[in-house]
Amino acid sequence: MTRSPKAVVLVVAALMATAFAVTPAYADDPGLNCAATATATISVTPSPVLYGHTALVQWSADCVANTAEDTLVISGPGFNPSTTVFPVGGGSQSVFITQTGTVGWSVTVVDTSSDTGFSRGLASVSASVTGVTTVPGLSGDTSAQAGQALSAAGYVLGSVGSVVDCDNINRVSSQSPSAGTVLLPGSAVSIKLGKKPTPPAQCE
Question: Which end of the chain is more exposed for a tag (fewer CB within 10 A), N or C?
Fold first, then answer.
């Protein structure tokens, strides 16, 4: 049985289409192979995270035939995506939490070979921030009272100055940072105590 030239062409075309359909585009590019097939996980403990304390970010990633061309980029607090890259695999890093609200991290696989530059987001995690502390109001306190209030809030008394304030003689007239400021525990808060003006000026 003979086939017409047209039928032969159609058969060959079908075979070629089948071959291309089952052959991945990255089959001859190990770097792209990994980037296209990678899977990953990322987590943070504790969750929620605690303001002013460290949290542990952990990640792992795997792919088909990873090479030196394949890296992971971690984005989020404590990581600099423009300079920090990791080999495909796993790892962890302690991060000091200075943000409020919600914080998050993500992991992306990148094929750094010059012929593709392909990247793909793999996983992400987020956590709310608890234990956010603010500076207490100290106005009208004595120096001793201010120190006690700051200690109870997790802060320390910083410099103690003075300013003319006839309404608050030997009591807090101003503070820095101001009351309600979000501040890391252990930070110093400075105060100024009111004093009388230099004679001959007098308080009215």
Answer: N
Structure tokens at 131: 């234990």
Q: Cα torsion for 83, 124, 33, 86, to the nearest 10°?
A: 30
Identify the pLDDT of residue 163.
96
* Cα 48–chain centre separation: 14
48: helix, strand or coil: coil
CB 186 within 8 A of CB 154: yes
Answer whether 93's CB lies under 8 Å from 122's CB: no
For the full predicted model, state whether its pTM sits above 0.85. Answer: no
Residue 177 preceded by cis peptide, ω within 30: yes
- Whole-angstrom distance, CA of residue 38 vs CA of residue 73: 13
